[in-house]
Design a protein that fits this description.
By secondary structure, the protein is an alpha/beta fold. Helix content is 34%, strand content 26%.
Length: 193
């Protein structure tokens, strides 16, 4: 059995009620810490052979288009304050986790700050780390790596990071999730997994 995860059920699109053969679905909540705890619990309870996280993300700049899908090649824990030099991480802290499953979408690193970035200045700083922002992926990847379970993330861009992000996300997240699921189904990923 393989496990399809998302922060909340609408991001699973049509897969929420009708997962592909050999797959089960679950949600892990919002934020990296909540997602890590929920993913660790699900891994222990269900013992999947692999995990795929589906979600939405915001773009920092024009490298990716609205409704464009991507394969999260790496989840990177970071923050605006860290990039400004006002905070630092201990040298022994792990801040990057690689995807360990290959997928059908273009690969990109994903920045995972502790909260949604609301300023254009913050978006410009974080763009030096990755083209997109997402909130749960470091937690999911960290739990999977700790348990030795192969993992990946498929995301779809639904908003620009900045002052209008919430309104854009609200208007676009359902359509983005539908398009992402349709693209994954059309690619044959679930049949070949």
């Amino acid at each position: 059995m393989r496990l399809l995860l998302s922060a909340f059920a609408p991001e699973l699109g049509s897969l929420a009620g009708d997962p592909p053969a050999g797959w089960e679905t679950a949600t892990v909540g919002v934020g990296a810490v909540t997602a890590a705890a929920a993913t660790a619990r699900l891994l222990a309870e269900r013992n999947p052979e692999a995990v795929l996280f589906l979600g939405t993300c915001g773009r920092y700049d024009g490298r990716l288009g609205l409704f464009e899908g991507l394969w999260a090649s790496q989840a990177i824990a970071t923050s605006v304050e860290e990039l400004r030099g006002g905070a630092y991480r201990p040298g022994i802290e792990r801040v990057r986790w690689d995807a360990t499953l290959k997928g059908p979408l273009p690969p990109y690193g994903v920045a995972v700050p502790p909260a949604i970035t609301r300023t254009l200045e913050g978006a410009a700083l974080l763009a030096s780390v990755a083209p997109v922002e997402h909130l749960e992926l470091t937690g999911v990847f960290a739990a999977c790596h700790a348990a030795g379970v192969p993992c990946a993330g498929a995301l779809v861009v639904v908003n620009d990071v900045g002052p209008e992000a919430q309104a854009q996300w609200t208007a676009n997240h359902a359509e983005g999730s539908r398009r992402l699921v349709d693209r994954l189904r059309a690619s044959g990923f679930f049949a070949g997994a």
